């Protein structure tokens, strides 16, 4: 009953309010985790951002600069492609993949590139994300609330 309410009533209402087809996502991977304080994390990862000319002072201004964890829930809002900034965290769905939530590190006229904060480099499919693949932008996180989905997926497979 709760699943039916969420899928057919709550999600459509939240989607209309936030302007996206996917207003809430449960984080199911470790790709955005920072398992240490920001200073230590940056010193261990700064080389990964040099090629994109992202400095520590810029990264410190980003929303969710300390990343987020597997099991967190991220609330999204719809966003126009032209409003996306470097450092924004977006959810996108590239062909053949589940929705991915990563940070924008490259802006182009017709696409963006992202990277998981905890990944040492970009994954091939996230180097050129087209406008029509972008689902929404992260606005805040709710820690731990997504563990229900994570556990369900790990026990029963994809839902």
TrEMBL record:
Q: Which GO terms describe its biological process?
A: signal peptide processing
- Output the Gene Ontology cellular-component terms: membrane
Output the InterPro entries linked to this UniProt entry.
LexA/Signal_pep-like_sf, Peptidase_S26, Peptidase_S26B
Q: Which Pfam families match?
A: Peptidase_S26 (PF10502)
Q: Does the keyword Lyase apply?
A: no
Chief location of this protein?
A: membrane
Annotated signal sequence is none
All copies of the Peptidase S26 domain together span 52-117
SUPFAM superfamilies in the cross-refs:
LexA/Signal peptidase (SSF51306)
Q: Where in the cell is it found?
A: Membrane
Coiled-coil residues: none
Which GO molecular function, any one, fits this protein according to its record?
serine-type endopeptidase activity
Keyword vocabulary terms for this entry? Membrane, Transmembrane, Transmembrane helix
What is the protein's name according to its record?
A: Peptidase S26 domain-containing protein
What is the phylogenetic placement of the source species in the record?
A: unclassified sequences, metagenomes, ecological metagenomes
